[in-house]
C-alpha cells in the first residue's frame, strides 16, 4: 500500500482521494433513489428526486464517519444498499401502494399540489417505518454478539463465494450501462487500467515549496493514487466535447444518447444551491407487517455482504482479519446507520460499499483518514444540493466502464481467499464451485419465475423471493452449510492457516491499533471490568476471531510475551 490504514496522507491528498471514493460510490448512491422513483410516483418530479439524492448523500456521510470512528474502523464507505430494493419494490407493488393512473401522465401531474405531495410522501413514510423497525433487528444482532459467535464457523469457503458473488451477478447491469456507448465505456476502462497497472510506477515531478529547500521538485506517483478519478474526468470531458460538437445523437431513442452530458440537465437546473436534510422531513413514518418482514430479509443479505466486505478490505489494506468484537461493532453501527436512514427518509438503508473496497486495491491507499474525508465530502454534497446534482450528470457509459473494472477486482479478491484452503481437495473444489454456480443459477430462475414461489402468505413469499434472488446470500449460505457439514480437516478447510495468520505475534499491536476504539476509550477511559463483557468491546490481546488468551494472573504484572499469550 502507498498509504497504510494508520498513515495520514497530506490534507490535500485526503481531499482528492475522498472525492475519488465519492465518485466511485456515486453510481450506487444515485441509482437507489432513481430506481425507487417510479414506484414512489416520482418519475415526473425530478426536483424531489434530487432531494432524495441529497438526503442519501448526507446520511451516507454521517454513517461513514460513524463506521470509521466507532464501527469496524476499516476504510470502508457507507451508502445506500441494493439489498433493500427488492423488498421495497415488492412492497410498493402491492395493490394498496400502486401509483394512481394520473401520476403516470406527465400532463396531469402538478408537482406542487398537496394531493400529489401526499401520494408520494405516504409511500416513502411506509418505507421509513419498515427500515426503522428492521434496523433495530440489525443493531440487536450486532451489539448482542450473535454475529461474532457465528464467525467461528465462517471460514474461507464461506467468505470466498460471498465476496465473489457481490460482483459476479452485477455483470448484467454493468454491461447494460457500458453498452449505452461501448466506445466511451472502453475508453474509461482503458484509462483506468493504463493508469493503475502500466503507469503506476512512473513518478510525475511536481513543484514543491519548503522552508529548507525552498522551491524544488518532488516525485509524486499520480497515476497510482488517482487512476479512477483521472479516468472518470478524462472520459467525462470527452463526452462533453462530443456533446458540444453534436457528435453524439440527440434523439432519445438513438444508440449512445445517454452518453451526452446534457441528458440529466433537469436535475441540475431545478436543484437548489443549499438544502439541509433533517429527520422526519416527509412526515411521521408508518409501519406494516409486510414491509418489515421484507426489509428484515434485506438486512440478512446486507449483513452477509458486509462481513465479506470487512474481510476483503482487511486483506487489501494488509491488516489482520477483523476480530469478533470489531465485526459485532461494525454490524451494530450499520444497523444504527439504517436507523438514521429511516429517520431522515432516504427510502433505503445503508451498508458497506463493495465497489469502494475494490478501489482500495487499485489506488493502493488504505488510510482511514481518506474515508473520513470521503464522509465529509458526502455531507457537503448533501447540503449543497446544486453541487451534488452536478455529479449526477456523469454519463451512464462512463459509470458502466468504471464498474466493470471495480467488479473484476472484487471478484478476484473473493477468489484469493482460497489460497488458505487445499485446492487439491475435491471437497473444497466442490463446495466453492457448487456455491458459485447456485449463487448465479437460483436467483436467475427466481427472477424469471416469481409466480412459482407461492405459499399463500404474502409476507413469507416476499421474504423467500428476496433471499433467493440475492446471489451472495445463496452462495454464502451454501458455502457455510457445506463447509460445516461435509467432513474435512482444519488444514484442508483452510482454518489452520487462517488461525495462524491471526495469531502471529507481530500482528498483535497492529490489530489493537486498527480495531480498538479511538481517543483512548477502553485503555485510558471507560476501563471498567464490566465493559470487557460487552460483545462489541475490544479486549486487550485479542487479535483474531479464534485466538484465546491462556495467560493467568493479574493485569498489573505487565504485558506478556508472545509465547505466553497465544494458543
TrEMBL record:
<feature type="transmembrane region" description="Helical">
    <location>
        <begin position="398"/>
        <end position="417"/>
    </location>
</feature>
<feature type="transmembrane region" description="Helical">
    <location>
        <begin position="370"/>
        <end position="392"/>
    </location>
</feature>
<keyword id="KW-1133">Transmembrane helix</keyword>
<feature type="transmembrane region" description="Helical">
    <location>
        <begin position="12"/>
        <end position="36"/>
    </location>
</feature>
<keyword id="KW-0472">Membrane</keyword>
<feature type="transmembrane region" description="Helical">
    <location>
        <begin position="466"/>
        <end position="486"/>
    </location>
</feature>
<dbReference type="GO" id="GO:0005886">
    <property type="term" value="C:plasma membrane"/>
</dbReference>
<feature type="transmembrane region" description="Helical">
    <location>
        <begin position="130"/>
        <end position="159"/>
    </location>
</feature>
<feature type="transmembrane region" description="Helical">
    <location>
        <begin position="179"/>
        <end position="199"/>
    </location>
</feature>
<feature type="transmembrane region" description="Helical">
    <location>
        <begin position="429"/>
        <end position="446"/>
    </location>
</feature>
<feature type="transmembrane region" description="Helical">
    <location>
        <begin position="51"/>
        <end position="72"/>
    </location>
</feature>
<dbReference type="InterPro" id="IPR006042">
    <property type="entry name" value="Xan_ur_permease"/>
</dbReference>
<dbReference type="Pfam" id="PF00860">
    <property type="entry name" value="Xan_ur_permease"/>
</dbReference>
<dbReference type="GO" id="GO:0022857">
    <property type="term" value="F:transmembrane transporter activity"/>
</dbReference>
<keyword id="KW-0812">Transmembrane</keyword>
<feature type="transmembrane region" description="Helical">
    <location>
        <begin position="282"/>
        <end position="304"/>
    </location>
</feature>
<keyword id="KW-0813">Transport</keyword>
<protein>
    <recommendedName>
        <fullName>Solute carrier family 23 member 2</fullName>
    </recommendedName>
</protein>
<dbReference type="InterPro" id="IPR006043">
    <property type="entry name" value="NCS2"/>
</dbReference>
<feature type="transmembrane region" description="Helical">
    <location>
        <begin position="220"/>
        <end position="244"/>
    </location>
</feature>
<comment type="similarity">
    <text>Belongs to the nucleobase:cation symporter-2 (NCS2) (TC 2.A.40) family.</text>
</comment>
Amino acid at each position: 500500500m502507498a498509504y497504510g490504514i494508520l498513515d495520514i496522507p497530506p490534507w490535500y491528498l485526503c481531499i482528492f482521494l475522498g472525492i475519488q471514493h465519492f465518485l466511485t460510490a456515486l453510481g450506487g448512491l444515485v441509482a437507489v433513489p432513481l430506481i425507487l422513483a417510479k414506484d414512489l410516483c416520482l418519475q415526473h418530479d425530478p426536483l424531489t428526486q434530487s432531494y432524495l439524492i441529497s438526503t442519501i448523500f448526507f446520511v451516507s456521510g454521517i454513517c461513514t464517519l460513524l463506521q470509521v470512528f466507532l464501527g469496524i474502523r476499516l476504510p470502508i464507505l457507507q451508502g445506500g444498499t441494493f439489498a433493500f430494493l427488492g423488498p421495497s419494490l415488492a412492497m410498493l407493488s402491492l395493490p394498496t401502494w400502486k401509483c394512481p393512473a394520473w401520476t403516470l401522465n406527465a400532463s396531469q401531474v402538478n408537482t406542487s399540489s398537496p394531493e400529489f405531495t401526499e401520494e408520494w410522501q405516504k409511500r416513502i413514510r411506509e418505507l421509513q417505518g419498515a427500515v426503522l423497525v428492521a434496523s433495530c433487528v440489525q443493531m440487536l444482532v450486532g451489539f448482542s454478539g450473535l454475529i461474532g459467535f457465528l464467525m467461528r464457523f465462517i471460514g474461507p469457503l464461506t467468505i470466498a463465494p460471498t465476496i465473489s458473488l457481490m460482483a459476479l451477478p452485477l455483470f448484467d447491469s454493468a454491461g447494460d450501462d457500458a453498452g449505452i456507448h461501448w466506445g466511451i465505456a472502453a475508453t474509461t476502462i482503458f484509462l483506468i487500467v493504463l493508469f493503475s497497472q502500466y503507469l503506476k510506477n512512473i513518478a510525475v515531478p511536481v513543484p514543491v515549496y519548503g522552508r529548507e529547500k525552498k522551491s524544488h521538485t518532488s516525485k509524486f506517483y499520480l497515476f497510482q493514487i488517482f487512476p479512477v478519478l483521472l479516468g472518470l474526468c478524462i472520459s467525462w470531458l470527452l463526452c462533453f466535447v462530443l456533446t458540444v460538437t453534436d457528435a453524439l445523437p440527440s434523439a432519445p431513442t438513438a444508440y449512445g444518447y445517454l452518453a451526452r452530458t446534457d441528458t440529466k440537465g433537469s436535475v441540475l437546473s431545478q436543484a437548489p444551491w443549499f438544502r439541509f436534510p433533517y429527520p422526519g422531513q416527509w412526515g411521521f413514518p408508518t409501519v406494516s407487517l409486510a414491509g418489515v418482514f421484507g426489509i428484515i430479509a434485506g438486512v440478512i443479505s446486507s449483513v452477509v455482504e458486509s462481513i465479506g466486505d470487512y474481510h476483503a478490505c482487511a486483506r487489501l489494506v494488509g491488516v489482520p482479519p477483523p476480530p469478533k468484537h470489531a465485526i459485532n461493532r461494525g454490524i451494530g453501527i450499520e444497523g444504527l446507520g439504517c436507523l438514521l436512514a429511516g429517520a431522515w427518509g432516504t427510502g433505503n438503508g445503508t451498508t458497506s460499499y463493495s465497489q469502494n473496497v475494490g478501489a482500495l486495491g487499485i489506488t493502493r491507499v488504505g488510510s482511514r483518514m481518506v474515508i473520513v474525508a470521503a464522509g465529509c465530502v458526502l455531507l457537503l454534497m448533501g447540503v449543497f444540493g446544486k453541487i451534488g446534482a452536478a455529479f449526477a450528470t456523469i454519463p451512464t457509459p462512463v459509470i458502466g466502464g468504471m464498474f466493470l473494472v471495480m467488479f473484476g477486482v472484487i471478484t478476484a479478491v473473493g477468489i484469493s481467499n482460497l489460497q488458505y484452503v487445499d485446492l487439491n481437495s475435491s471437497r473444497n473444489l466442490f463446495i466453492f464451485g457448487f456455491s458459485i454456480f447456485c449463487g448465479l443459477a437460483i436467483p436467475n430462475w427466481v427472477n424469471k419465475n416469481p409466480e412459482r414461489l407461492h405459499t399463500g402468505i404474502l409476507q413469507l413469499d416476499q421474504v423467500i423471493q428476496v433471499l433467493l434472488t440475492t446471489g451472495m446470500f445463496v452462495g454464502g449460505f451454501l458455502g457455510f452449510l457445506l463447509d460445516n457439514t461435509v467432513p474435512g480437516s482444519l488444514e484442508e478447510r483452510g482454518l489452520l492457516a487462517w488461525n495462524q495468520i491471526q495469531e502471529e505475534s507481530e500482528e498483535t499491536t497492529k490489530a489493537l491499533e486498527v480495531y480498538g476504539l479511538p481517543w483512548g476509550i477502553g485503555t485510558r477511559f471507560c476501563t471498567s471490568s464490566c465493559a470487557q463483557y460487552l460483545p462489541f468491546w475490544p479486549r486487550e490481546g485479542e487479535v483474531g476471531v479464534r485466538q484465546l488468551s491462556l495467560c493467568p494472573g493479574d493485569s498489573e504484572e505487565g504485558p506478556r510475551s508472545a509465547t505466553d499469550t497465544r494458543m
